[in-house]
Design goal:
149 residues, 6 helices, 3% strand, globular
């Protein structure tokens, strides 16, 4: 773990790893272990980029403020920690392309599991917003670490 981590201190890495595990468990609860009202009778998906985002932005008056704020900003904010943890645990993910590919593999898997288990829907806009949030986290990580990659 120390070879590929940014920090060479074992205790720091263990703390980051523990916080990452806690974050992952919270995300599993939020994404998969929801109340009955989140379950669908059929497979739901949106593969048209920005369709859901446009609906929330241009028709926000048709939605409860809580709904569109959570769907737009929640999808960004909830994934910022991914951009903080992943690159510090493995410095190869300080570079944007490997980081984005890794994050996309996670997000696409999550969206597919949500759709196939009918506990949510596969929405390309969620992937876009989640990726943007994780990139914010990566930017903050790179800013504070001051490491040239």
């Amino acid at each position: 773990m120390l070879k590929s981590s940014f920090y060479k201190n074992r205790i720091v890495n263990m703390c980051i790893a523990a916080l990452t595990i806690i974050y992952a468990l919270i995300m599993i609860k939020l994404l998969f272990l929801r109340g009955y009202s989140y379950y669908w009778d059929s497979y739901n998906y949106n593969l048209v980029p920005f369709e859901t985002i446009k609906r929330y932005v241009f028709n926000r008056h048709s939605f409860n403020q809580d709904i569109w704020v959570k769907n737009l900003f929640g999808n960004i904010i909830l994934f910022i920690p991914l951009g903080l943890a992943i690159p510090t645990l493995n410095i190869k993910y300080m570079k944007v392309i490997p980081f984005v590919l890794f994050v996309l593999s996670i997000l696409i898997s999550v969206e597919l599991i949500q759709m196939f288990t009918k506990v949510g829907s596969l929405d390309i806009d969620d992937i876009i917003l989640n990726t943007f949030g994780s990139l914010i986290g990566l930017g903050v990580t790179r800013l504070f670490i001051h490491r040239k990659v």
